[in-house]
Amino acid sequence: MKLIYVASPYAGDVEKNITFARRACRYVMEQGHAFFAPHLLYPQILDDTDPEERKAGMKFGIRILEICDELWVCGDRISMGMEAEIELAKQLGIPIRYVSEEQILGNMQEEGKEIRIIQEGRVKIEKAYPQDSQGMRSMTGLR
Asked: What is the SS3 assignment for 84?
């Protein structure tokens, strides 16, 4: 089991972005991995509107990124914070995987349907698994 650092947008429509980040974490879990999403943790404790506290939260997240096995960039939009995480992962030699919003939100209802994952400029094909009644992919039995 790998430890995956989940990067997805936070600022803007925060409520929508938090919901998406939760789905991204579930997606990682359903792939058989553990996850860390700093933007789901630190804003609950720190004030993201306070520049000093935001800086501290980013610093804490970067420390965890250093020990993660991979960085997964989730969604179709890359924020400035995500750009910084991507650059650091590149500097540290941490593999980066790009996962589209479509993959995470679950347009993969038929078992065996192929999905495309863009990873470091290469396309990788994986098999999809059916969704449960809440639109979550059921692969590992974890709910």
From this structure: helix
**Total tally of structural domains belonging to the chain:** 1
Tens-digit pLDDT profile for residues 53-85: 989 998 999 999 999 999 999 999 999 989 999
Give the CATH number for residue 56. 3.40.50.450
Q: What is the residue range of 93's domain?
A: 3-127
- 131: which DSSP letter? B
CB distance 105 to 27 below 8 Å: no
**127 contacts: CB under 8 Å, gap ≥ 6:** 111, 112, 113, 114, 115
Name the pTM for this structure: 0.73
Residue 69 lies in a domain: yes
* Residue 116 confidence (pLDDT): 47
